[in-house]
Amino acid sequence: MYIIKKKVQKQPIDQGMVVSLAKLMVGFLIIDLGLQFYEYLIGWYGLETEHLDTLATMMASEKAWSFWIVQMFLGAVIPITIVFWKKTSQNINALLAAAVLIVIGIIGVRFNIVLPPLVVPVFHELPWGNYAPTIKEWMVSVGVVAMGLLIYSFGELLLPIEETSDEVSHNGK
C-alpha cells in the first residue's frame, strides 16, 4: 500500500525501508513455510486415513494446482527469489510484485486449508465430495480484502506513517 500510494502521489519512496521490509516479509514467509511443513508432517506421521487422504487431495489430485502453483510457486518460490536475487533485490517494482505474490500465496493457503477437508469424507462409507467456491464466496473474499484496504486507509489518515514538513518544523522549535 505504501509503494502504491507514493507512486500515485508521485512522492519519493524510501527504498531502504522497502528493502528492509521485503527481507522481513520473506523471513516471516520462510518461518511460515517451516510451520506448514510441520503441519503436513504431523498429518503424515499420524498415518490416519483421513489426514493422508486430505494431504493427497491437496498435493496430488486435480486440485493440486492450488498447492503447487499458487501456494508454493507463486506465493513462495518467486517472492523469495525476487527478494534475494541481486538483480531484483533493490528494485521497488519487483519487491512490490513479491509482496502481491505473497498475498496471492496466502489466499492459496486458505483455499488449501478449507477445500481438501471438505472433499475428503470423515467416514469412508460416505461418497467423496466435490467442492468449488461459488461466485458469492469469491465476492465475500474480495469484500474482505477491500475491507482490509479500507481499514488501512482510515488508519493511515488517523495515524500518518510519515511526518509532513509542517509537523517537523513545529516539533523542531
Describe the structure in brief:
The protein is an all-alpha fold. It is built from 7 helices and no strands.
Overview of the molecule:
This protein is mainly alpha-helical. The chain folds into two domains: 2-132, no CATH class; 133-173. 76% of the residues lie in helices and 0% in strands. It is built from seven helices and no strands. The protein has helices at 2-8, 15-46, 49-60, 64-84, 92-119, 135-158, 165-172. It is elongated and about 65 Å long. The two termini are 32 Å apart. The mean pLDDT is 85.
List the helices and strands and how they pair.
Blueprint (H helix, E strand, L loop, with lengths): L1 H7 L6 H32 L2 H12 L3 H21 L7 H28 L15 H24 L6 H8 L1
Helix pairs in contact: 2-4, 2-5, 3-4, 3-5, 4-5
N to C succession of SSEs = HHHHHHH
Query: How many structural units, i.e. domains?
Result: 2
Number of helices: 7
Outline the low-pLDDT stretches.
none
Radius of gyration equals 21 Å
- Main beta sheet strand tally, sense and closure: none
Distance between the termini: 32 Å
Strand content: under 5%
Number of strands: 0
Overall helicity: over 70%
- The helix/strand class is mainly alpha
Average of the residue pLDDT scores: 85
Structural shape: elongated
Keywords:
mainly alpha; 0% strand; 173 residues; elongated; 2 domains
